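tokens incoming
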């Protein structure tokens, strides 16, 4: 019954013409492992950013939306602190087709701690989670100061969050921000420790940021701008 209601909602959105008038973003927050307390703050923020920047936002944790028809009504999908094994094979295939047709993907924080048994997804995100530090302040090196996602940051960015270490880092990612492991405890990637990046992937665009563990992140002006520009990178092309 719940799945039928979700599909009906999507049909009503499309029939109202919203997805025809402006870009449309799906925010997906399903978890099958650790669940972040900051998810609700993240959803509220992206909904507000949509109102302010003329893109529609639909939030769900129902995997029924991962069908070819339902995904065709969206321009980008945000995996906001998802965790674990959350899509079946048919839903995975629908998402792959979505990207092949020019879709956008935005991964936030624990999106890298998701779908470890789906190699395509790991390449889409750009890396997989491999442990983390405690919540602490660290210095971030801005590697692409002219890119819209970090042009407001200067040469370095000091902020507080939980810092991920990564494995299976794709050679195809374009690193936007790099963690300076000498400025905090718990880093294991060494001098090359990407924490935000983008890439063109499988016909579409992908942006990932490792920030967003804490609720405070979604009230932090610099991080909010960083996330907004990542969404816009995947939408307006």
């Amino acid at each position: 019954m719940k799945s039928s209601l979700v599909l009906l909602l999507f049909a009503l959105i499309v029939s109202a013409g919203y997805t025809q008038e402006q870009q449309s973003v799906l925010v997906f927050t399903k978890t099958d492992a650790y669940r972040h307390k900051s998810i609700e703050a993240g959803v509220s923020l992206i909904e507000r950013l949509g109102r302010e920047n003329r893109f529609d936002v639909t939030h769900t944790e129902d995997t029924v939306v991962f069908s070819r028809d339902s995904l065709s009504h969206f321009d980008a999908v945000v995996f906001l602190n998802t965790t674990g094994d959350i899509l079946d094979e048919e839903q995975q295939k629908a998402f792959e087709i979505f990207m092949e047709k020019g879709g956008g993907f935005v991964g936030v924080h624990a999106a890298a701690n998701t779908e470890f048994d789906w190699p395509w997804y790991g390449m889409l995100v750009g890396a997989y989670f491999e442990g983390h530090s405690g919540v602490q302040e660290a210095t971030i090196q801005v590697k692409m100061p002219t890119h819209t996602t970090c042009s407001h940051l200067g040469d370095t960015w000091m902020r507080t969050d939980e810092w991920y270490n990564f494995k299976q880092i794709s050679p195809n990612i374009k690193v936007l921000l790099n963690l300076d492991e000498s400025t905090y405890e718990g880093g294991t990637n060494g001098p090359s420790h990407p924490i935000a990046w983008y890439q063109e992937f499988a016909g579409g665009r992908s942006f990932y940021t490792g920030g967003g563990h804490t609720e405070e992140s979604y009230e932090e002006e610099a991080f909010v701008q960083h996330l907004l520009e990542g969404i816009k990178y995947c939408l307006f092309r």
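note: Confidence is low (pLDDT under 50) at residues 11-20.
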